[in-house]
């Protein structure tokens, strides 16, 4: 997740770390708030009534307390674990079991103070990920993405500092497209499309990498910084599989 994606936000780093001028999903300068989980304009098709119904439904089915548990239901594996490198399979039918897995992932993510988590991080190789950029607001439903596919990515790119619940403490710059469009199924199995930019786009791309066994450190180009951060946090360079 991140410090920006799957993991944890580096405390205090966010408001200045994001380009405030970016538009939808951007964080106002000086604000201490994370952007709302689902950016305005994110859902392409649908009236306000449809959006409200969708939010209501996900509130019913997905909302779990955004608090730390003494014993989270799932263990989050860390860099060096082979499970992080295995690709995830598409989910055929979205069932109550799928939703229970998503809820357990959310409980584990909230306990670890992360804003995103992908199923392979808990050793389950299904194309399922959960994101919540609004940890402070108990009523904001999280985003559940099943079988996500990016249909378009912007030519413009950004550099942004990421972190990951599977590589705790490590924060490094990664370059990615600024904005994306994707299709996916939601927690009720409904096909959805969405556009995202800012932190949401960053987070989705980071989590989707996990579904392919790719970790953000694989994308880091600052080799010296990478080696230092890994060493400082007890991880080994040999477990990084550079993609560039
Ligand atoms: Ni991650």
| Rg value | 17 Å
Shape: globular
User: Low-confidence runs (pLDDT<50, min 5 residues)?
Assistant: 11-45
Arithmetic mean pLDDT: 84
> How does the major sheet shape up?
5 strands, antiparallel
What share of the residues lie within helices? Answer: 10-25%
Order of helices and strands: HHHEEEEEEEHH
Distance between the termini: 20 Å
Strand content: 15-25%
Number of strands: 7
Provide the list of bound ligands, each named once. Answer: nickel (II) ion
Please state how the strands of the largest beta sheet are arranged side by side.
1-2-3-6-7
User: Which structural class matches the secondary elements?
Assistant: alpha+beta
Helices, by number, come to 5
Oligomer: single chain
Describe the structure.
The chain is an alpha+beta fold. The protein is built from five helices and seven strands, in the order αααβββββββαα. Residues 11-45 have low confidence and may be disordered. Strands 1-2-3-6-7 form a five-stranded antiparallel β-sheet. A two-stranded antiparallel sheet has the order 4-5. The protein binds nickel (II) ion. Nickel (II) ion binds at residues 1, 5-7, 164-166, 206, 210.
């Amino acid at each position: 997740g991140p410090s920006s994606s799957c993991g944890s936000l580096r405390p205090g780093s966010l408001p200045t770390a994001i380009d405030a001028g970016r538009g939808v999903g951007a964080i106002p300068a000086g604000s201490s708030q994370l952007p709302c989980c689902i950016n305005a304009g994110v859902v392409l098709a649908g009236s306000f009534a449809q959006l409200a119904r969708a939010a209501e439904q996900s509130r019913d089915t997905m909302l779990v307390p955004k608090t730390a548990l003494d014993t989270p239901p799932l263990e989050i594996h860390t860099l060096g674990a082979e499970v992080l490198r295995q690709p995830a399979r598409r989910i055929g039918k979205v069932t109550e079991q799928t939703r229970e897995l998503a809820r357990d992932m959310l409980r584990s993510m909230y306990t670890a103070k992360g804003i995103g988590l992908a199923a392979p991080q808990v050793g389950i190789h299904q194309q399922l990920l959960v994101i919540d950029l609004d940890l402070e607001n108990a009523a904001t439903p999280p985003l559940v993405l099943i079988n996500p596919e990016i249909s378009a990515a912007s030519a413009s790119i950004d550099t942004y500092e990421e972190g990951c619940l599977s590589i705790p403490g490590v924060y490094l710059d990664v370059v990615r497209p600024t904005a994306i469009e994707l299709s996916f199924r939601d927690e009720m199995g409904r096909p959805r499309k969405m556009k995202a930019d800012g932190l949401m786009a960053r987070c989705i791309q980071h989590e989707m990498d996990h579904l392919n066994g790719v970790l953000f450190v694989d994308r880091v180009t600052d080799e010296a910084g990478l080696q230092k951060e890994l060493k400082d946090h007890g991880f080994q360079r040999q477990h990084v599989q550079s993609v560039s």
